[in-house]
Amino acid sequence: MQRSALILAGGKGTRLGEQEKALLTFKDKTLLEKAVDVLQPLVDEVIISVRDQKQQEIFSRFVKGVVFLCDKYQGRGPLAGILEGMRAASGNYVFVVACDMPFLQPDVIDLLFKEAVGHGAAVPTWRDGRKEPLHAVYNREQLIPVVERSILMNDHRVMAAVSQLHDIRFISVDLIRLIDRELVSFANINTPTDLEQIIKKGVYYNG
Prior knowledge:
Elements: E1 3-8, E2 25-26, E3 29-30, H1 31-39, E4 45-50, H2 53-59, E5 67-70, H3 78-88, E6 93-98, H4 106-116, E7 121-125, E8 135-139, H5 140-152, H6 158-162, E9 168-172, H7 173-176, H8 192-201
């Protein structure tokens, strides 16, 4: 089974004062570099979704051996990047992740790939029902048509598209906690406060 990984890096970082989230530095590396370092040994290809050529030119200075894709649809949020990434991916299953997660865990990603085999997706799920669709593995062929449909219907919510998939494996965080005890896999940077906590503590807990 060929595996692909898709890093969604096209966001504008509005809540971070228009900073490029992917280029925020943590422990002497950008978040983009950290993600690529984790993913390249796990998959056959790493694809990075960007919003335009200018962003691609900037990001390409930091990472090598990856494929860059520009969004065809503008203003559609992560779905635009997911669609182009899925169309370009050569893997049967694709790990989709946001670029603002600094603590990706190889064993967790490997678990999601294994759980996704034969299913539409493997999506981590919290006890209160929250889902982690931007840290999940998807069946490429199944995801493309539902994302296309959501974009055409002008519904840009990621879970609105994902929920249309058949036979989703919802993976409890309790199972993931056996590998990632503090569930740092799902830590992300959305606000200046998030960034301050990560820099101060070296870790950020999301649950």
